[in-house]
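Consider a typical record:
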Amino acid sequence: MSVFKSAFYALILFSPSLYAQEVIKDTITSYQLETAKVSGYFTEQPLLTTPGSVSIVGQKAILSQNGATLLPSLNTVPGLRMEERSPGSYRLALRGSLIRSPFGIRNVKIYVDEFPITDAGGNTYLNLIDPASISQIEVLKGPDGSIFGPNSGGVLMIKPNGFQHSPLSKTSLNLAGGSFGFAQQQLSILQQINQKYQFSLDQSFTRSDGYRENSALNKKTIQTAHLWNYHPQASLKVFALYSDLNYQTPGGLTLEQYQENPRMARPATPATPSAKQQKAAIDNKTFFGGISHKINISNKLSNTTTIFGSSSKIENPFISNYEYRDEQNLGYRSYFSYESQDQLNWQLQIGTEGQKGWYDIANYDNKNGVSTDPQAEDKLENWQNFYFVRGKIILAEKLTVEGALGLNQNQIAYRQVYPQTSQQKERISFGTTWMPKFAASYLLTPKLAIRGSISSGFSAPTIAEVRSSDNIINTALKPESGYNKEIGLRWEWMNRRFITDISYYQYKMNNAIIRQLNANAVEYYQNAGKVNQSGIESSIMGYIIKPSSEKLVQALYINSSVTYNHYRFKDYEIGNNNYDDNKLTAVPDWIIVHALNLDFAHQLGLHVQHNYTSKIPLNDANTAFADSYHLVQAKIQWGFKFSTKFMANVYLGVDNLLNEKYSLGNDINAFGNRYYNAAPTRNFFAGLKLSY
């Protein structure tokens, strides 16, 4: 190891000023801690007294590195891990394993404001959204099925540009380029037409040749959000997104191939062609849209009703087949909210959410990237409905108590079209499930709060798990379920310059859904007994140097988080193999992240982020592990004004500063031990942002 690396690791891991940091939050446009508010639970409330485990990622953090990906910013949240197998191919796990999400995002519910973008089948295409179109993300950790529907990991609440109440109109254009053929253009327009109406328009184009063979990305998005306060007691929101996303998939490598040439795509074998020969890729054209209406029936009672829908056309040439998916979704969400702040401060919400999805999935032989003879075709439908009630009360301005109860119904209907045609629909019912939650927070002092919660986790198999790559409808899969117990402490100190958050949780999951491969290297899913998930999440955010325009160093802001995962299999056997007490596949024991923002005079700024991830088990048997790694990213920028209204910002950034060799987005339980998806070596980007 070089002297430079050794010195850098020592500084990062042992410097008290860095290691002492943890989670708080940065706000939409700044890092002012005293404005920390949580709005995901229906009404805005202070972060300090929120009974749940919540983290907030503001726009400044989202754009602190390369604006083409959410990866660096979301990975600052303890308990959340995001991976990138190749440009555009993302996976996300929130308090849980990536074992159910080899190629996407499952078991996490994601909303854009009032609009669920997680479809009826349980899948979320988060990679369709351009990061520059997001103003803030709230991360609600732990099972929250009582008010958001089935999930075990938690909920992401994305705030898009245009819905925040802003008295200012602004336009910005960002142009960027970098290593491995990276190029990006982003246009963002926010217009305040009058006191009643405002809208935003965000458009982007992103391309990359990729670090590896067959890993090119081409992405085009356009998004618009409209807020119309057409009456003093009523408002209307409209959101629409169209994304045309194409990215190549290079496939996993064996350890020998990864060490020899990490840039290669999955090579051919005597039995199978290469990823490049098969033109392995994903092409996803999706439209999502919705309308949300809120009316204040009285000064205490309101109703919010949302309708939404999406349409996705997906092509996926792969090694073993060429898949076409036509996915359509429609849904609604409606709830009444009653708030009383008289002698007793309490509120009550009651509502319902439902979705129906239609999925036409067809597989063909793949001959050099061209679909030929049919293999299988199925039509599936998914219904998901849940009803919820939630109450909250604040006693003596110290004790906050929340209770919620959800009732979930979920079923799938399917009909085979090829190789045999069935006229009759078959049904898979996952039953009716109650999902309770109880949480409380108590202010020990005006700036120190202790909290605790118990909640039910429930996650039905997704469409992609019931009808996986083996083209067989798996009627034996059962939903995951369990109870999560959690305690935590949140502390604001040094006149709110810092906020510290620490939590400990235990989640015992039954019927864990695990990805497996059959003898033909084709994936399928099965239930794997129990998984015991225990973890500690801690974070600190705050100002080492408070903001001041009078000094050369105008501000120093630090955000650090530490995550410890103790996840183990229980009662898990496959054939003669017993995996009891093995580490849960794809989950590292430790993740430590430090982020530093340094502001100088003359609008100079520096952002540095360090991510340490310990070794990761790659299979259920724990016979293969991905090495631990230190990832360092940095960005320096300079802003200057041409006039009172016109501003420019020039920036230069580097990813993987230490030039680590690591795999990000490993293929788990991979056939032929093809686990490794090499991440890029040291690479650079630069750009110019013009704002008016």
In short: Residues 1-32 have pLDDT under 50 and may be disordered. The CA atoms of residues 492 and 499 lie 4 Å apart.
